[in-house]
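Sample intake sheet
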Amino acid sequence: MGHATGYLQECLNGVKTIQLYAAECKVQNQFETKTRHFFKAQSHSNFYDAALYSVIEGITSIALALMIWYGSWQILAGIVSIGVLVGFINTLNRIFVPIREFTQQISVIQRALSSLENIDKLFREIPEEQDAEMFAEKYTDEQLAERFKEFQELRFKDVYFRYTDSSPWVLQGVSFKVKKGNRVAIVGATGSGKSTIVRVLNRIYTSYEGSITINGVELKEIPRRYLQRMIALMQQESYLFAESISFNIALNREEITLDKVRDASKYVYAHSFIEQLPEEYDFKLLEGGKNISEGQGRLIVFARALAGESDLIVLDEATSSVDSVTENLIQKAIERIFQDKTVIAIAHRLSTIRNSDLILVMDSGKIVERGSHANLIEHSGVYAGLIETLSGEAELVALPFG
């Protein structure tokens, strides 16, 4: 049933798209197919439950009949009294009560085991922290806090990644270095591996080959709590909870006070619209932020990324799918971040790219060009051809390569 309910939730989230493409009938048929499998399995389960229950009840009835027959014969022979027979009958009933209850719970146990198997699969998909735990055991909390107090250097060295052993490589021999204060822009076509670099860096994917180090420590060995303090990720899509705006920005991180929430909001130009809401930062959002605009939600997510005061900011297509007003606000915030922080940005706008210290041009999982804006233009390669097609502040996403 989990597959059917998951599919139903997916359809409800995408109901507008389904209606737009007149796919209601096909979606309904797919849902009926999924539920048909469930009802078929449920029917088999109910049949076996009923059969087992009938067997237990039959055994109970036969045992009770034999007890009464034998007890009656014993009473007529003067061997036992009626009270003894009644006592035996009550004892027999009490013996079969837990057996009946157990048979009634078998189907519940089966469903629980099935759910447990699904939960186990989910936990197995979560990146293991064994290497990080082994590393952390070597040092005290004070030593770890000092070692990862601030970001110094990130290094990718000959990194390869693919989703499965049989799938093609998504990253192939990726190598680059980012030092404190650097501003790095990554550009490339859709599917070139830009966002995969971000996901590997944030340890969403851990089955990479090669070496990724932060402050000289292998990425897999860094305890997650310290990794998350050093790196803040601004994703294309981030979830907004049905909680207050302050909760959605702080996300229960104890070190983030209301003042820090306000400062982060002001930094990304979200404070102006938040203070106009009823209850301001205590204003409760609906699930997914449905009672505010998509652009306002994106600014809240942006504030969330900056509230922790991380040293390394990773922007994964931060201005995609937003209105022009919000995009301009985010772009202003990005320009401010470029002045104050170490930044890795999946870049769309020429102004962001031009202001970068290092530009990585990706194609088919490889870095095909690298350098500053001026050097790459002078090189007259792929990047130069890309820039020639730009007009003013046009977005790279609007281009064949971007």
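Comment: The first strand starts at residue 153 and ends at 161. Residues 147 and 215 are 8 Å apart (CA to CA).
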